[in-house]
Design brief:
The complex is a heterotrimer of chains A (about 120), B (about 500) and C (about 475).
Chain A: H1 2-5, H2 7-25, H3 29-50, H4 74-105, H5 110-118
Chain B: H1 7-23, H2 31-57, E1 60-63, E2 74-77, H3 79-106, H4 112-131, H5 135-154, H6 160-190, H7 195-202, H8 209-225, H9 234-241, H10 244-270, H11 277-302, H12 306-326, H13 330-361, H14 372-375, H15 377-391, H16 397-410, H17 413-443, H18 458-476, H19 479-493
Antiparallel strand pairs in B: 1-2
Chain C: H1 3-23, H2 28-47, H3 49-54, E1 60-67, E2 70-75, H4 78-104, H5 110-129, H6 133-151, H7 157-189, H8 207-219, H9 231-234, H10 240-249, H11 251-267, H12 269-274, H13 280-297, H14 302-323, H15 326-357, H16 368-371, H17 373-387, H18 393-407, H19 411-437, H20 453-471, H21 474-484
Antiparallel strand pairs in C: 1-2
The chains are: A mainly alpha (about 120), B mainly alpha (about 500), C mainly alpha (about 475).
Chain lengths: ~120, ~500, ~475
């Protein structure tokens, strides 16, 4: 069950591959942004997975804390909160540029914009 | 509280705090530009002060808010870092001073405050990467600087700036995310994010497979950010279509900061702890570097757009820088550090000259620049001299770095001699592509019927020539970068030969 | 004026002159005066060093030290003194001639022409006085680049293409071969300073030394040892004063001078030729002498013939340097001088013929001496000097080289000397014969006499120098003796 037990990591790898595939193969700028978002989400999953401590609960400081209780590692959660913010900014900026491209070129397909750039 | 002790934090905080302030200004008048330039100049002064401190007392360590490392956030500024700080703040300040007029010309006035605000964010991000002693903070600052740079590049006057930016954004984000994955793996194995702490704890890790994966992700991620061949596709277009002042700023320092992280991460964290890593590092990077400077130079030879030509030449120069590092010797790392500093001087000058030409000709096609040598003699003379420096002619900074690089290569016997041959071949290619520009500008008659433009504004010229003279100054007396590199080398190589 | 100051001024005066020429560009008379004044000033500066150097002083000046053992510095030693004297003397004559030629042919871009000339002279003096290889290398490259606009002067597609060949070969050899050799030397010896007796002894030996020598000899493309001689004929598209500059005043002289200097002060002759794997240089030189003479024999264009003659004559210098007997080493420097005087005369004559009659081919020269007696008399003297007939300069140097060859019983060299002398006769004497003793076959389109007077004055002067050197060569011999004494 070792292999199935690590299913979080398998999903991480799957998401990473799907995201990267979309980024590289797709010609549509919006689809590429979607791919990029999936790609980043994969990394969030990786970090969230690694902070899990077996039998641990949410690391919240309260007066009901039980001695000997295990807690999940809070640091990766903090990191990933930051990374999510970064990811949102990137997505927002990418989409904004896609809109500007649509305004200037009238399309959001890379092979079309490339063709238009070649023809002066 | 002594202000001098707070300099490492101020280095980043000052531009970061000024950024929102500039964004709130109105677009009329020169105030946004003035404030940005002053902030950048203040950063430069801080960088100079830090350099003096480091030269006098050795590396500085700073704990944010007094929280001790590894729990708090630590800043570490070694000699190599101060060299980078000088490059980044210097390039930013010069580009701003030089390019105020061209920004007005190339970018809509109403966008200027926001754009200058982005500029300060980019500056703060780059500086943050350099001073940060923490792997995750490096990621955050990397993304701050990258996001801001995307905005800056997208502001270019041509619509192709947008598609270039999109490519830049995708590549940059993938690179940063790769880096983050690598950091995640190392965190899993060591439980720390502080670089020095990581280096100390990695030795105790028994399971090395995740660390090796982390190495791969980090090297490739930073390689993407640094436009290392064959991951350079985003760079030439980004520099070509960005506003001229932005091109000067970014070309001089942005990829170098990624290289700085790559070199520091690898030399500090991986090499002391992974047996055989040095060999892997060399055999992975060295062929890429050689391919970078050969392919970059060959493409530059056939390029007909001046800024793209310079962009591909940067691909080649990045190859030189990493080649020095990948040789893993004192002379090699010295060459790498020197060339980071020197190449910033060279490329800043070349892009300044190209920007001045663009301002007057409105085109970067070589065929349109015929006769520029007569129309704009001072600009072209500056370009020619900076070109000599790029080629590596003695008395210029380019010569100093190539000299060290070749000495480093010669330590490696026959293979080293072959490497020297390849470096010289690439220098010859540089002669050809610089000469191509010179010949068009000086020996070809201007296009029939085209109006002969005036010389660039005196202000632009004086800054261009300041940098050109810098190329010669540090080519004749390279003691500043050399002494900083000399202080850093033992720390980087950690007693290894 | 202190010797250091004077040295600095000697190197930079032509450069200052170039600035002055550029500023005076709008007034041709003033511009030409600046050229002449600078040339005379340079000669006075350089020649005034002669007594000091003869007395054994070696003025030195360090401009900048970049890295330990790497500096920009100048130092006057006997060999460099000879070269500098030659270059500064011939620049005056060449300037006078240029004025006649450029005005006579109504050439364009005259200001650029004189400016580049000044820069080239500065570089040549720098090469002569360089204290170390790095300084020499820089000046060498400046010389290459500053002569490109001169070679491409006409500006049409053909001359630009040829000028690219010229610069391409010179830059490619210097960057591709000489630069690595220089860095290798530095890596071995830790210094690049020219030192009597050489700096390489004990650091390298055997075939590797031969390889280093190979890199240097072919890296100094200006010495035109075959097969890197192609740039010389290519550069024949240039106006004649430029050819004179290339062949006599600065460029090729800088090449053979550099090789001699490298052998004497970098390798150390005794050390160099005590090692195996270095003798190939002698064969290469002998081959070049013969092969270039044979090619010269087949030329139909006067200037191209002279170009191949230069290729052949340069290898005399290399051969003499390699022979390694004191007497032939004297021949080395003497031949640099003798060939300078002789060849500049020949080119001046060729240019004068072109200016007066627009004739460039050998078979057009029937009877031309009747119309241009002064020019052809000078041409004859130059040709005799190339062959080595007394009382001309060429006879002196050939005598010393032959003496060295006989002294070492080196029959290959003796044979080469004899064969090349015969070949020289075979391609020069027919020209002289046609010019003086045959009648014009077709009457020229316009009746012409001599070229403008500055040109005639210049070529007469150099012809007299060629003759005079046969009798007055004492100081040169003295300098040579000092060089051989290991100082």
């Amino acid at each position: 069950m070792q292999i199935l037990g690590l299913y979080n990591y398998w999903i991480f790898i799957l998401l990473l591959a799907i995201g990267l595939y979309a980024v590289i193969v797709k010609s549509n700028y919006i689809k590429r942004m979607i791919g990029l978002a999936i790609f980043q989400a994969a990394v969030f999953l990786l970090f969230i997975t690694m902070d899990k401590v077996e039998g641990g609960t949410a690391p919240i400081f309260t007066k009901y804390m039980v001695p000997g209780q295990l807690y999940a590692n809070p640091l990766p959660q903090v990191l990933i909160l930051t990374a999510i913010v970064v990811g949102i900014s990137v997505t927002a900026l990418g989409l904004a540029i896609a809109i500007r491209i649509k305004e200037e070129y009238g399309c959001v397909e890379e092979h079309e914009t490339q063709r238009m750039d070649r023809e002066p | 509280m002594n202000l001098l002790e707070q300099l490492p934090a101020l280095q980043v905080v000052v531009p970061l705090l000024m950024a929102p302030l500039v964004a709130m200004l109105s677009g009329r008048g020169a105030l946004p530009w003035l404030l940005t330039t002053l902030t950048s100049a203040a950063s430069f002064v801080i960088a100079v002060l830090l350099t003096q401190q480091v030269l006098a007392d050795g590396p500085l360590f700073y704990e944010m808010g007094g929280w001790s490392v590894p729990f708090g956030i630590g800043l570490a500024i070694g000699p190599f870092a101060t060299l980078m700080l000088l490059v980044v703040t210097g390039a930013s300040t010069l580009a701003l001073l030089w390019g105020g007029a061209s920004m007005d010309h190339e970018v809509g006035r109403s966008h200027l405050p926001l754009l200058y605000s982005s500029w300060l964010m980019a500056l703060a991000g780059l500086l943050g990467i350099v001073v940060s002693g923490d792997a995750f903070n490096i990621f955050v600052f990397m993304e701050i600087s990258s996001l801001a740079s995307y905005v800056l590049v997208a502001a270019g006057p041509d619509r192709r700036a947008l598609t270039a930016t999109f490519k830049y954004l995708i590549t940059g984000t993938v690179g940063a995310t790769f880096y983050l994955i690598g950091v995640g793996y190392i965190y899993m194995m060591t439980g720390t994010l502080n670089l020095a702490d990581m280096a100390a704890r990695l030795g105790e890790v028994s399971e090395l497979a995740p660390v090796l994966i982390a190495t791969g992700f980090i090297l490739v991620g930073l390689g993407l950010k640094a436009a290392l061949f064959p991951m350079h596709a985003w760079m030439p277009n980004a520099y070509t279509f960005a506003p001229s002042a932005v091109a000067v700023f970014l070309a001089a320092c942005s990829t170098k900061v990624a290289l700085f992280v790559l070199i520091r991460f690898d030399f500090v964290v991986f090499q002391p702890n992974l047996a055989g890593h040095g060999l892997m590092f060399t055999s992975f990077l060295l062929p890429l570097c050689v391919a970078a400077f050969l392919v970059g130079s060959v493409i530059a030879v056939f390029e007909s757009d001046l800024k793209r030509l310079l962009g591909y030449s940067s691909v080649a120069q990045i190859g030189y820088i990493l080649l020095g590092a990948s040789l893993l010797s004192a002379a090699g790392t010295t060459a790498a550090m020197l060339h980071m500093f020197n190449h910033a001087l060279i490329k800043a000058a070349l892009f300044m000259a190209a920007g001045a030409l663009f301002l007057r000709y409105g085109s970067m096609r070589l065929s349109d620049l015929a006769g520029a040598g007569r129309a704009m003699p001072w600009t072209m003379a500056g370009f020619a001299l900076a070109g000599l420096s790029l080629i590596g002619v003695p008395l210029t900074v380019g010569f100093i770095s190539k000299w060290y690089l070749i000495l480093a290569a010669l330590e490696h016997g026959v293979g080293g001699a072959v490497l020297v041959g390849l470096i010289l071949l690439s220098s010859l290619l540089a002669v050809i592509y610089i000469w191509k520009v010179i010949e068009v500008a000086y020996f070809r008659e201007a296009v029939e019927g085209a109006t002969v433009p005036a010389e660039a504004p005196v202000w632009m010229l004086s800054l261009l020539w300041l940098v050109v003279l810098g190329n010669f100054w540090f080519g004749i007396d390279p003691s500043l970068p050399l002494s900083l590199a000399g202080m850093e080398v033992p720390a980087l190589l950690g007693g290894r030969p | 004026m202190s010797p250091q100051m004077q040295l600095l001024l000697a190197v930079f005066l032509p450069l200052l002159g170039a600035v002055g020429i550029a500023l005076a560009g709008r007034w041709p008379n003033l511009r030409e005066s600046v050229t002449l004044v600078t040339a005379v000033g340079l000669m006075l500066l350089v020649w005034s060093f002669l007594p000091q150097v003869l007395a054994g002083e070696r003025p030195q000046l360090v401009l900048a030290e970049m890295l330990p053992g790497l500096s920009i510095a100048f130092r006057i030693e006997p060999l460099g003194m000879i070269f500098a004297c030659l270059a500064s003397l011939l620049w005056i004559v060449n300037s006078v001639y240029s004025i006649g030629y450029m005005r006579g042919n109504n050439e364009k871009h005259q200001t650029r022409f004189y400016v580049c000339f000044g820069i080239a002279l500065s570089a040549a003096i720098g090469v002569a006085f360089a204290q170390n290889l790095l300084t020499l290398f820089i000046c060498y490259e400046v010389l290459t680049i500053s002569t490109y606009p001169l070679v491409a002067h006409k500006g049409d597609a053909h001359s630009v293409r040829q000028a690219r060949v010229y610069m391409g070969i010179l830059l490619a050899t210097s960057i591709g071969l000489m630069l690595p050799a220089m860095i290798w030397t530095y890596a071995l010896a830790g210094t690049l300073e020219f030192t009597p007796g050489g700096i390489l002894e004990g650091h390298i030996e055997g075939p590797l030394l031969g390889l280093l020598l190979l890199l240097f000899v072919f890296g100094v493309g200006k010495a035109a040892v075959m097969p890197v001689h192609r740039w010389l004929p290519a550069a024949m598209v240039a106006p004649t004063p430029v050819s004179a500059l290339l062949h006599a005043v600065a460029v090729v002289k800088a090449g053979v001078f550099t090789i001699t200097k490298l052998i004497v002060y970098l390798f150390g002759p005794e050390f160099l030729f005590s090692q195996t794997g270095t003798q190939w240089l002698l064969y290469a030189a002998c081959f070049t002498i013969i092969a270039a003479s044979v090619i010269a024999l087949r030329q139909t264009n006067l200037k191209r013939m002279l170009a191949y003659s230069t290729v052949s004559q340069l290898s005399y210098v290399v051969m003499a340097a390699v022979l390694l007997t004191p007497i032939s080493q004297i021949g080395t420097a003497l031949h640099i001088l003798a060939h300078g005087f002789g060849k500049i005369t020949l080119f001046f004559a060729a240019g004068a013929i072109y200016t007066a009659s627009k004739k460039t081919e050998l078979n057009q020269l029937y009877g031309i001496a009747r119309r241009m007696p002064w020019t052809m008399a000078a041409f004859t003297i130059g040709a005799l000097s190339m062959i080595g007939v007394p009382p001309t300069a060429g006879a002196v140097s050939k005598w010393y080289i032959l003496g060295g060859a006989l002294g070492t019983q080196n029959m290959l060299v003796v044979f080469t000397l004899v064969a090349s002398t015969i070949l020289n006769c075979a391609y020069f004497l027919p020209v002289v014969y046609r010019a003086w003793l045959r009648d014009e076959d077709v009457a020229p389109k316009k009746d012409h006499g001599e070229a403008p007077w500055p040109a005639v004055l210049a070529l007469t002067t150099t012809a007299l120098l060629t003759l005079g050197f046969f009798f007055f060569n004492g100081p040169a011999l003295e300098l040579e003796a000092q060089m051989l004494a290991g100082d």
